[in-house]
Amino acid sequence: MSSKRKIALACSVCGSRNYTITENPNRTERLEVKKFCKYCNKHTLHRETK
């Protein structure tokens, strides 16, 4: 039985971890997505953390 691992997306401006996604073992480089940060109050680049 395989378990789904959770990965956090951290804001590149303030560093807060606002979003979680399930891990994709096929992805080699870190995911980078523009998402809304409630602490910065604007859309910023969010990066996958380990």
Automatic annotation (TrEMBL):
GO terms for biological process: translation. Gene3D superfamilies: Ribosomal protein L33. SUPFAM superfamilies: Zn-binding ribosomal proteins (SSF57829). The keyword Ribonucleoprotein applies. The keyword Ribonucleoprotein applies. Keywords: Ribonucleoprotein, Ribosomal protein. GO terms for molecular function: structural constituent of ribosome. One of its GO terms (cellular component) is ribonucleoprotein complex. InterPro entries: Ribosomal_bL33 (IPR001705), Ribosomal_bL33_sf (IPR038584), Ribosomal_zn-bd (IPR011332). Coiled coil: none annotated. NCBIfam families: PRK00504.1, PRK00595.1, rpmG_bact. Belongs to the bacterial ribosomal protein bL33 family. This is Large ribosomal subunit protein bL33.
